What we know:
The structure is a homodimer. The first copy, chain A, is an alpha/beta fold. Chain A has helices at residues 13-22, 34-41, 53-64, 78-88, 102-105, 109-133, 180-199, 238-248, 267-279, 299-312, 340-344, 353-365, 372-375; strands spanning 2-6, 26-31, 68-72, 92-95, 138-144, 159-164, 167-172, 202-208, 211-212, 252-255, 261-266, 287-292, 295-298, 319-322. In chain A, a hairpin with a 2-residue loop joins strand 6 and strand 7 (167-172). In chain A, helix 8 (238-248) crosses helix 12 (353-365) and helix 10 (299-312) packs across helix 12 (353-365). Chain A is globular and about 55 Å long. Chain A binds chain B through residues 78, 109, 112-113, 116-117, 120-121, 124, 128, 132, 151-154, 160, 162-165, 167-169, 171-177, 180, 183, 186-187, 190-191, 193-194, 197-199, 327, 333, 381-382, and chain B through 78, 109, 112-113, 116-117, 120-121, 124, 128, 132, 151-154, 160, 162-165, 167-169, 171-177, 180, 183, 186-187, 190-191, 193-194, 197-199, 327, 333, 381-382.
Amino acid sequence: xxxxxxxxxxxLGWPTAMHLTTQGHEVAxxxxxxxxxxxxxxxxxxxxxxxxxxxxxxxxQLISGHRVAVHVGDLNEWDFVAEVFDKFRxxxxxxxxxxxxxxxxxxxxxxxxxxxxxxxxxxxxxxxxVREFCPDAHIVKLGTMGEYGTPNIDIxxxxxxxxHKGRRHxxxxxxxxGSLYHTTKIMDTDLLWFYVRTWGLRVTDLMQGPVYGxxxxxxxxxxxxxxxxxxxxxxxxxLNRFVVQAVAGHPLTVYGKGGQTRGYLNIKDTLNCVRLSxxxxxxxxxxxxxxxxxxxxxxxxxxxxxxxxxxxxxxKVDIQHVENPRLEAEAHYYNPxxxxxxxxxxxxxxxxxxxxxxxxxxxxxxxxQIKHDQIYRNVKWV
Amino acid sequence: xxxxxxxxxxxLGWPTAMHLTTQGHEVAxxxxxxxxxxxxxxxxxxxxxxxxxxxxxxxxQLISGHRVAVHVGDLNEWDFVAEVFDKFRxxxxxxxxxxxxxxxxxxxxxxxxxxxxxxxxxxxxxxxxVREFCPDAHIVKLGTMGEYGTPNIDIxxxxxxxxHKGRRHxxxxxxxxGSLYHTTKIMDTDLLWFYVRTWGLRVTDLMQGPVYGxxxxxxxxxxxxxxxxxxxxxxxxxLNRFVVQAVAGHPLTVYGKGGQTRGYLNIKDTLNCVRLSxxxxxxxxxxxxxxxxxxxxxxxxxxxxxxxxxxxxxxKVDIQHVENPRLEAEAHYYNPxxxxxxxxxxxxxxxxxxxxxxxxxxxxxxxxQIKHDQIYRNVKWV
Lengths: 382, 382
């Protein structure tokens, strides 16, 4: 299948690109290196050196024999979008091309505005490009479990049957998020769902939880193929940050009480979820929604696991409860469903000690490069 | 109270500005004449000649002695927004400054993109300006009943208590709209509700139905004070269009079966609803939602009323069911609540024969100016 990956330079975009080529798909990626620019502007570094897309594609071709076509440009620009879609005529589009960090979206008016405009514009351009160039193509959109927030009832998989005053209606599950970034993902869903109904687009919305890990069957073949790894407060996801903190001898920074519970998954499972979605597309006129995670943990659970695994390999790990910079419930009901991807054949990689030790051993190699002032800056939400 | 009206040149913006000055408020308006530009670009005319804001403000001051401060500029531009807010330090902001036409938003990629960017950018800028310059100011946002769509259960006033598997949660009432324009209003709600929770903003969201009429206590003092009156398919609302069609001898164009039911209100009631909201503000950290309409009618009901009133004054009026260019249910359950504004003291002006005859008599004066090719162009949604 011809698969176009938007945001192909990203933490998930690049590993997805390589993975799909090994499954026989013809893959093109597009990216404008926005994430790299924002990291430079905010003065945060990746733990590792990450070659650019052309270099990574050349390295991957050398190692695997598989080709990834690279398009560098801004998906906010219609001319670029039209050129890529017209040339490649994708059968599936994987849309990762968004400013992905909640804390970044809360830094200032400018970062909020960039997040809002970038995420909505790219999503709109994808919709218009599919309509114009490949109306039967399947859009696989990365949403987030954060769109649901933490309601006091079970989180169903995308939809909610409501009985009210003796009548019934099936609604898109009501969404209410905890950051501007997550709110833009709700808006993406609003937009996609409208055009699914109006134009009969076929869309899969993957409501993903926080992802951890670096190693996949493809990334582990060469360090130059690893995705970038942020350990700072702005762009780093929680488990990746805790692993770096453990290695650096910095106390694990648990925000507030640490009862915040979310669904997590291994980067390997992200690739499989996305591949399963591409290979089993939604129907025309269908918005198919999967909750994409494999296990739920509280932040306290994660900290305890990192501490235990760290201790196993001789690291001394402290846990510190710091003032919560975010506005969020620190103890709450959380019971999200997640059967759709299992039904498609997902075989999860759970968060084991082996997984944590493998991550720590990788980080230890780069220990001298960890910049301690990036670990904790107390970026406030409110 | 110092009240800033964004979109002060509009069909509702200008009458609201005059009305609030008569109630003792200090009023400033801001607008960039976007609506006028879009009408020129789409080659549709107002029925009447409408002076620009400076001219109208001068005329109103001459007639009433009341002053309206005029700021002409683009609320997408932060520098303009900051200047206006910094100078005026409003205590209430009435936000009408959006591309307001559903059919316009469905014309093309360009009109969709303009609608999306304009509506979201202005709303975001309003939020950031309030945060920076007047954090206690009350934002009165014009939403639309169209955000709810036509669910098979009662439409409550903004919120829905859901019982699910033995647990309960109160959600923002799930929204699902029928045009891109309406979808941008859903996104506005997402955005406002996020910042209400996060920053404690005070917001009233007025979920307004289609408005009809021209005459208010202020506009009727001089024809130069009347709001602009669109009768075309793109910018005209349904009852205003039917009145012009009746006068022009054009059959009333009912889309499809005509069972589409909505909540309507007289322009006089819009002004009172907005004034009541301003004078009885939401609390800090509150998103207060009112469903703003006074009566529900199907399109068939409206056509029958226009026909009857037309006949009374000697017009021959035919009703024609034309192919529906929109994607919408033509027969559906519709039972929306609307008690909030009545509780605040709203005294409705219902759609009587007198109201329709008054509108028709006005339109008859301009009969020679009606451009028949603008009445029906069959702008398709899909």
